[in-house]
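User: Could you go from structure to sequence for me? I need the amino acid at each position, not a summary. Structure tokens:
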């Protein structure tokens, strides 16, 4: 019997490699698009409540601290932002971020409140914006006529929070309190109190 060689089809291995490479490139592009789109979405959760109790309105204990460098989660936040810089992720309106000289800081500089400030009008639907190296960060909004009109948790993502707040003011002034609740007992720590205008 004569030796027969098996009949092999002449296939080009390079076409298989090209298909595999194209599939990998498409998967990488899809992953990139998914990640870039998910980074643009700001997750926030806010719960609001109303109360008729009138708490003591603390005076602002924060002073304007000039042009200090602050480090939140390894990101340096120094210098002054121009007044035309817009708050990212704001769902209701564009709010200019005030200069750093108007920002308010907790005693240990772990929370920085960028907006609102004592010189801005804080309106329903506008965001509370800032930086924090701790989480969670809570807020209480107090109307000078009726007391607490909103409270909740500000979601801290990548050292930043930017959460629109819904409330109904009953006067033209109030107090905004930002703080970190103690994990041990829920007491208010790293407090920022500022007088605000509605």
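Assistant: Here is the amino acid at each position, in order:
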């Amino acid at each position: 019997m004569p030796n027969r060689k098996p009949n092999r089809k002449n296939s080009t291995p390079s076409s298989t490699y090209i298909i595999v490479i194209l599939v990998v490139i498409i998967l990488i592009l899809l992953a990139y698009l998914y990640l870039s789109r998910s980074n643009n979405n700001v997750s926030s959760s806010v719960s609001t409540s109303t109360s008729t109790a009138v708490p003591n309105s603390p005076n602002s204990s924060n002073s304007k601290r000039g042009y200090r460098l602050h480090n939140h989660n390894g990101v340096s936040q120094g210098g002054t932002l121009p007044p035309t810089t817009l708050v990212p992720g704001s769902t209701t309106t564009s709010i200019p971020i005030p200069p750093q000289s108007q920002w308010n800081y907790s005693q240990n500089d772990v929370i920085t409140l960028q907006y609102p400030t004592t010189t801005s009008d804080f309106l329903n639907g506008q965001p509370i914006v800032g930086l924090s190296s701790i989480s969670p960060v809570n807020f209480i909004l107090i109307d000078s006529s009726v007391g607490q009109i909103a409270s909740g948790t500000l979601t801290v993502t990548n050292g930043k929070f930017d959460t629109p707040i819904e409330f109904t003011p009953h006067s033209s002034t109030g107090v905004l309190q930002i703080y970190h609740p103690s994990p041990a007992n829920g007491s208010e720590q790293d407090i920022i109190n500022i007088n605000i205008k509605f």
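One structural detail worth keeping in mind: The chain has a mean pLDDT of 74.
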